[in-house]
Write a structure and sequence with these properties.
Blueprint (H helix, E strand, L loop, with lengths): L4 E3 L5 E3 L24 H7 L5 H6 L2 H19 L5 H31 L6 H24 L4 H7 L1 H17 L4
């Protein structure tokens, strides 16, 4: 058998060193800040108070958004023209918050085990940040007397119509692209 050799100028043959052995793939830790496993059940339980389960998961933007949504609904219901719609939103926010915290903990655990980096956090944080800006702005306008939540309580079905149109538009026209 011939060895891999390289001839030099003086005529002596020197063997070529073998290529380095492939190293094991490096697993990058999740960008959630910690590779610690999260308990989905504990995250859901902590979410009985909106936002705490997401704080446990290390998702500060989601925690602030869920807490703000909960506090906004309680504030609107406590106002003299709260309306029943915002009262019905409170349990929805709590239960959705619990489900989302549970699913986020499972996603964090899967990402830490597989080494897959987390989803694009800046885009996610931007969405939650804008929702906080909108909710805070509406509450400020309500306090200043420029905007009243009673108006939303009467016209909230328009939000359902707009959401339905958006879903239909996406399902009808999205498949053509």
């Amino acid at each position: 058998m011939e060895e891999n050799v390289v001839g030099t100028e003086d005529g002596l043959a020197t063997p070529i060193p073998p290529p380095p052995a492939p190293s094991a793939p490096r697993i990058r830790p999740s960008s959630q800040g910690s590779t610690q496993r999260r308990s989905p059940a504990l995250a859901a339980f902590l979410s009985l108070f909106p936002g705490f389960g997401h704080l446990y998961n290390g998702e500060i933007g989601k925690a602030l958004a869920f807490f703000s949504a909960f506090a906004s609904c309680v504030f609107i219901v406590a106002e003299d023209h709260g309306g029943a719609f915002f009262g019905l939103l409170i349990p929805f926010i709590i239960f959705y918050n619990m489900i989302e915290a549970y699913r986020s903990a499972e996603r964090i655990n899967l990402q830490s085990l597989s080494g897959v980096s987390a989803e694009d956090e800046p885009a996610s944080n931007q969405l939650w940040g804008w929702s906080l800006v909108v909710m805070g702005g509406l509450m400020l306008l309500n306090n200043l007397g420029v905007f009243r939540f009673a108006w939303i309580a009467k016209l909230w079905p328009l939000l359902l119509i707009a959401a339905g149109i958006a879903l239909l538009r996406g399902s009808l026209f999205g498949s053509r692209q």
